[in-house]
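ok so dumb question maybe but i'm new to this and my supervisor (M.) told me to 'just get the structure for UPF0102 protein E8K88_12850' and walked off. so i did the thing. is this what she meant?? sequence i used:
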Amino acid sequence: MLKQVATGIKPAADQSIVASRRQAGTKQRGEQAEALACAFLQQQGLRLLARNYRSPGRGGGEIDLVMQERDGTMVFVEVRLRQRADFGGAAASIDQRKQAKVVLAAQHYLLSLGGAWPPCRFDVVVLQGLPVPPMAATSSAAISDGLQWFKAAFDAS
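this is what came out, is it supposed to look like this??
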């Protein structure tokens, strides 16, 4: 059996464990960011209808939050968390391809409701440089300081 020489290269099994832990941490931070965004939007008077709605099929999109304004406007929200502003930051990461996937998922969501479609809007909530702490330790002031809400950030065309 060969011994691994101290070269700084980890065996493949160790690398996959590290990668899966990193993904789990990223997923957890994403879920916390969505929870913070949802709480903020609810403070602004929006009502939560669905979280993490996925349109079926390959290449379908996902909507982080489906909310509704008091006037009945359906609001499809994309939440982005970035620790740093490299490469344009969180807002710049929502390119046209991502927008198209969100629009596709929104259309599927609306079709699943049946009937006439309500007025709709696509919003983006950006959490930039905000360390996402456990929910219990977060004040609403801290949330709004690191959070930006872009109403009608993009449209369905």
